[in-house]
Amino acid sequence: MKPISLHVDDKDYRDFKSLAERTGRPVEELIREALTEYLKLRRRGRGSVLDIPPHDSGPQLRSWTREELMDEMIDP
User: What is the DSSP letter of 44?
Assistant: First the structure.
C-alpha cells in the first residue's frame, strides 16, 4: 500500500469520522474504500450497464423481462 497525504473538506472529514464511529471502522479504511469505488465508476471499458444501480423514477407501469428490456434498448 502506498501512503499519501491529502486535504479534505472539514465537513467531509466529520462525515467520515461519524460513519467510522457508527461502523467501528477506521476513517482511513473508509476513505480507501471510497477511492476504490470512485475508480471503479470511472474506469472505461469495464463493467456493464447492468452494474449501474437503478434510479427510482416513479411507479413501474409494467413488468419487463430482461430480454424485453435489452431488445427495447438495442432496437433502433
Answer: T
- How many domains are there within the chain? 1
All 3 cell numbers of residue 8? 479534505
Name, in order, each residue with C-beta under 8 angstroms of 40's C-beta and a sequence gap of 6 or more. 46, 47
Domain holding 23, by residue range, is: 8-45
The answer to the question of residue 41 being in a domain is yes
Residue 58 located in a structural domain: no
What pTM was computed for the model? 0.54
Query: Residue 64 falls within a domain, yes or no?
Result: no
Quick: pLDDT tens for 17-70: 999 999 999 999 999 999 998 888 887 666 677 878 888 888 888 888 999 888
User: For the range 31-40, what are the long-range contacts, defined as Cβ-Cβ under 8 Å and sequence gap of 24 or more?
Assistant: none
